[in-house]
Amino acid sequence: MIEVKSVNINTFRDDIKYNILYDLSLDIIEGEILGIAGESGSGKSVFARYLLGLNDSNLILNGGELTVDKNIIGSVDDYKRIRGNTISMIFQDAASALNPTFTIGSQLIDTIMLHNPLMSKKDARIKAISCLREVEIDYPEDRLDSCPHQLSGGMSQRVMIALALATEPKYLIADESTTALDKLIERQILDLLLKLNKDRKLTIIFISHDLSILESICDRVAILYAGELMEIVEKKDMASNQLYHPYTRALRDCVPKITREILPSTFRLKTIKGQIQQNDSAMEGRCVFTDRCVSSIDKCVNGKPKFNGKFKCVNPIEVDEKI
Ligand SMILES: Nc1ncnc2c1ncn2[C@@H]1O[C@H](COP(=O)(O)OP(=O)(O)OP(=O)(O)O)[C@@H](O)[C@H]1O
Ligand SMILES: [Mg+2]
Hints:
Layout: E1 2-13, E2 16-28, E3 33-37, H1 44-52, E4 60-61, E5 65-68, E6 71-73, H2 76-82, E7 87-90, H3 94-97, H4 104-115, H5 121-134, H6 140-143, H7 153-165, E8 171-175, H8 183-199, E9 203-207, H9 211-217, E10 220-225, E11 228-234, H10 235-239, H11 246-253
Helix pairs in contact: 4-5, 5-7, 7-8
The chain binds adenosine-5'-triphosphate (ATP) and magnesium ion.
C-alpha cells in the first residue's frame, strides 16, 4: 500500500507562495486501479512525480509523509530504492521516452541487467522476450532488433509498458499514457493494463483528464482541483452518478455522450466556466473551487472545507444513496 499523508508542495513566484499540492492525503490500495482526474494544471503529474521523487527542485515539499509498503520514503536514497523497482512509470509520449539510438532489445536487456546485476545476458534476453510477449507484441524475438522509430504508437506504448514491467514493480503509474493514441489502440492498451492488473496483481495509478476512460477501468477515482483532493469516487458511484462534489459533477457533465445522431449546429459541448484557480495563500481560508461553483454559498469562503473521507465540500450535491 502507498500512503500519502497531508502533503504540501509549494512554489514561489515574485515572493508569492503557490500551493501546487495542498494538504493532500490519499492511499493507494494494493491491487486496485486508482484513477486520478482533474483539469489541466490540477497537479496530477506533480503528484505522480512526488511518488517517485522526480519533481523539479523549484517545487518545494513542505510537510507530509509518504509511506510505501510501510517504509517511510523521504531521502534521496529511499527514492532511489523504490524508483523503477517498486514503482514504475509510463508516460504519454512513449516514442520520445524511448532512446531512439538503441534497439528495443538493448534497452530492455540493459534495464533487466541493471536491476538484476547477477543475471547473464542470455537470461536477460530470454526475460526481455517474455516481457514483450506479456505486453502482447507479436514475434517478440524479431522485435528485439527493432529501433523505436520502426514501431507504431500503440507498439511503442506496449514497449514502454514492457520496460516498466521488466523490473517487476508492484505499482505502475500511467500518466496520460493513452492520450496520444487513437481510440481503438487506446482500448487495446487499457485492456492490456486491466490484464496486468488481474494477472500480475499490479497496482495501477492511472492519470487522465478523461473521466469516461477512468470510469471504464478504475476501481476508484480521485478528483484533483488546483492541487487539492476534492472527492474520491468508487467505480459503482461513478456509473450511477452518485457524485457529491459540484466539481466532480461538473467534470462529468463535460464528458460528451456518444451518439449516432447528427447533432444540430447549435450543439455545444459543456464546459466549466472560468479557469482553474491559482492556489495561493488567500485560498487557504476558503474553498478553492468557489468562484466557478454553481453551488457556492457564504460558508464556502468562511474557512477551508475539510475532507470527510469521501469529499471536501460544505454544500455537497444531494445524492440518493439508495441507488
Ligand atoms: N517545475 C514547476 N515549477 C512551477 N510550477 C510548476 C512546475 N511543475 C508544475 N507546475 C505547476 O503545477 C501545477 C500542476 O501541474 P501538473 O503538471 O501536475 O498538472 P496536470 O494536472 O498534470 O496537468 P495536465 O493535465 O495538463 O498534464 C500547474 O499549475 C503547473 O504550472
Ligand atoms: Mg500532467
